[in-house]
Recover the amino acids of this structure.
């Protein structure tokens, strides 16, 4: 029988600081929790086989037990670099939509990890070169032509990095602004659905942060993380009473199951910290048309 988690380290008062956090600090808090859970996925085997977690995971657990810790200097330096890169760039540069530079294109073109993609492109070039050559014995390879005609960022996700966050598009500047905007909205909606890469449809507001606090999302994530690291158990009933103390007229276990857990899984699964970081840079670099 699995031993019960020792929760003597847990103090809900350590999370009071969440009420005062900026959007940058919320991004860091969620980023820390995301990487905690990502580490569990990457290093799942040790405790499944009954071995002790490695020192890297134990260090993360120690930090979690201290409550909310914000590394201001690291966060500020990274944010400042991003903001300055946008402000010093072209007048049309933004944090979420930008033109692809020749250097970035060259970097994509020399990626040796996409050899199958380059082979497919070579095959397409040979097909086009022999299109009107009746004597050519080159036989089209459907698998290769399909790869060559697939959006490049989708090929990267399929053959190299499943979490690749960028998408490359071509815009016909002869089209009217109205058409381009309508077409882009159509592309964005359907492309997100196609590649299963969903993000919030609107900017985050204080009401969102207040909701995460109200439903104790961060305390839930921390308790669950420590339990997995230490190979211990904590019942939902005990956890609910720890993160929703002195709430006697509410089904707190039901709230945990129906609201807190789904909300936490969505925040981590959708990499909400990345959206928060992007929004922070957007707010600091927004230009009037």
């Amino acid at each position: 029988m699995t031993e019960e988690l020792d929760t003597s380290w847990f103090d809900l008062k350590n999370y009071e600081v969440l009420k005062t956090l900026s959007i940058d600090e919320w991004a860091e808090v969620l980023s820390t929790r995301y990487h905690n859970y990502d580490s569990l996925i990457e290093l799942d085997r040790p405790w499944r086989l009954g071995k002790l977690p490695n020192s890297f995971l134990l260090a993360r657990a120690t930090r979690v037990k201290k409550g909310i810790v914000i590394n201001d200097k690291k966060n500020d330096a990274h944010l400042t670099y991003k903001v300055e890169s946008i402000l010093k760039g072209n007048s049309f540069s933004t944090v979420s939509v930008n033109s692809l530079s020749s250097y970035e294109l060259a970097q994509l073109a020399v990626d040796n990890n996409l050899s199958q993609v380059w082979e497919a492109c070579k095959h397409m070039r040979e097909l086009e070169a022999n299109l009107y050559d009746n004597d050519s014995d080159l036989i089209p390879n459907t698998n290769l032509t399909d790869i060559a005609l697939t959006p490049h960022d989708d090929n990267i996700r399929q053959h190299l990095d499943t979490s690749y966050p960028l998408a490359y598009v071509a815009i016909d500047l002869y089209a009217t602004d109205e058409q381009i905007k309508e077409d882009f909205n159509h592309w964005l909606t359907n492309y997100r659905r196609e590649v299963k890469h969903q993000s919030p449809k609107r900017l985050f507001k204080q009401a969102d942060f207040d909701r995460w606090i109200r439903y104790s999302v961060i305390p839930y994530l921390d308790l669950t993380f420590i339990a997995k690291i230490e190979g211990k158990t904590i019942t939902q009933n005990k956890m609910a009473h720890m993160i929703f103390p002195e709430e006697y007229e509410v089904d707190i276990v039901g709230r945990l199951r129906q609201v807190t857990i789904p909300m936490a899984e969505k925040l981590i699964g959708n990499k909400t910290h990345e959206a928060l970081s992007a929004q922070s840079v957007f707010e600091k670099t927004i230009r009037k048309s």
Notes: The first helix runs from residue 23 to 42.
